[in-house]
Amino acid sequence: MSAGVEEFDIVVLGLGPGGEEVAGRLAEAGLAVAGVEAGLVGGECPYWGCVPSKMMIRAADLLAEARRIPGMAGEAAVTPRWEPVARRIREEATDDWNDKVAADRFTGKGGTLVRGRGRLTGPKEVTVDGERVLRARRGVVVATGSQPSAPPVPGLAGTPFWTNHEAIEAERVPESLIILGGGAIGAELAQVFRRFGTEVTVLEAGERLLSREEPEAGDLLGKVFTAEGITVRTGTAATRVDHHGAAFTVMTENGSHRAERLLVATGRRSDLAAIGVGAAGLDESAHALDVDERMRAADGLWALGDVTGKGAFTHVSMYQARLVIADVLGEPAEPAAYHALPRVTFTDPEVGAVGLTERQATDQGMTVRTAVTDIGASARGWIHRAEGFVKLVAADGRLVGATCAGPSGGEVLGLLTLAVHARIPLAELGTMIYAYPTFHRAVEATLRELG
Ligand SMILES: Cc1cc2nc3c(=O)[nH]c(=O)nc-3n(C[C@H](O)[C@H](O)[C@H](O)COP(=O)(O)OP(=O)(O)OC[C@H]3O[C@@H](n4cnc5c(N)ncnc54)[C@H](O)[C@@H]3O)c2cc1C
Ligand SMILES: NC(=O)c1ccc[n+]([C@@H]2O[C@H](COP(=O)([O-])OP(=O)(O)OC[C@H]3O[C@@H](n4cnc5c(N)ncnc54)[C@H](O)[C@@H]3O)[C@@H](O)[C@H]2O)c1
């Protein structure tokens, strides 16, 4: 070992869900592993993402369910209080944004935790905070995730707008909130804050909410949100933002909106230049780190998670982590495949989707057949007074995509994910017995519609 240079078998840059998994498992396998983390070990998901947001959603859904009592089960007076939500997030989810448990878990497996911001300074070399040089005999795993991306709206930069961090850390709900972006984050948090009493306005530049999903999903959420008192403006881009005193003003082509808080949820980006991927011969201006089916980005360089651009979801990061671990250890593993990528937006109704949308399938030149049925028309949906739908997209006698919006839509999605993943013939799916009266029975009705 040369002076000032520390040598390891593997250096993992970024310890989000995928990076932590790779670093821990490889350390357990006996490799010398350094894990470099600039923030909290565990990354976005447990501290500012999936887990605390789903805790908020659980609370908001309880309120909504109680509000459904009149007309079905008696009377209910619901008084929302944010304090238990904020406390659960602080105490149960994030340990007050302290990662000691996760850090100890990694070092307990034999890994070396290096706190600081790392940057590739050679094909198999990472320099942390400009001074500590870590060399990796086998290679580097880049797992640096993504950061919120604010649009270049005049006036926005420099204002105290919220990203998901401030929204998750909120100790009280604002009186009023404008959300820029009606994607996964915007839609989930709009409903949470509305159900706790905030006046919420969602400004979405695209044609509808959840623009990445089937149009039926965005239309349904638009209708439900409006009925809940959320102001939804689609096809609306902000042209200017001002912040004076205690209020934000967001100007659009069709008028202006004022609120106490502004949440920017217009997507996320990975800054490849900041990670220094040019030192490994890669394009720093690219959108994402391009990886092959074994998660290799270059010789001695693997990448996983949001930074690969294959889907900004924890389950993608964990799936890719498994493939990286297998490749490093020389164990057999299937090549990466994303044809049955599932995603769930945890709104109410919950939107579960897998594989291709109708539009994506058509754009890929497939001859598709689709069918949509109303969950409210199914026995369970009618009993529950539920709203939602199942949409199936089929090509060559198999499902290539499906969406299930409704109560537990993400759970019903399990069977559809299996069908798309295993390419089960439609004829086979049609012979299955679907329990009565379940929400997933709507899948059978939709298959019948498909013919
Ligand atoms: C509000 C919200 C809700 C979400 N809900 C869900 C959900 O319900 N389900 C789901 O599947 N996904 C959800 N996601 C997405 C999910 O959180 C991410 O896809 C996931 O965390 C990505 O994991 P990752 O391994 O790529 O790394 P990340 O979690 O992004 O972590 C990367 C880590 O790398 C560190 N890092 C970055 N650069 C450096 C550097 N140069 N040096 C050292 N360390 C560095 C960062 O500090 C960070 O800790 C949500 C996201 C948000 C924001
Ligand atoms: N339940 C989940 O799994 C979950 C929840 C939250 C986030 N996530 C992940 O995090 C990612 C980031 O979430 P997100 O909601 O920030 O991004 P997103 O890409 O899902 O949605 C961003 C939305 O903002 C809109 N937009 C872009 N620029 C705009 C502008 N200037 N004005 C108004 N609208 C604008 C886009 O049209 C899009 O609809 C998601 O794509 C998802 O992968 C997942």
Folded structure, characterized:
This protein is α/β, with parallel strands linked by helices. The chain folds into 3 domains: 146 residues, FAD/NAD(P)-binding domain (3-Layer(bba) Sandwich); 103 residues, FAD/NAD(P)-binding domain; 109 residues, Enolase-like, domain 1, CATH 3.30.390. 32% of the residues lie in helices and 25% in strands. It is built from 15 helices and 22 strands. The strands form 5 sheets. Strands 1, 2, 3, 4, 5, 6, 16 and 17 form an 8-stranded mixed beta sheet that branches. A 5-stranded antiparallel beta sheet has the order 18-19-22-21-20. The radius of gyration is 23 Å and the shape is globular. The mean pLDDT is 97. The site of nicotinamide-adenine-dinucleotide has 26 residues, from helix 7 and strand 18.
Briefly summarize what is shown.
The chain is 32% helix and 25% strand. With 451 residues, it is an alpha/beta fold.
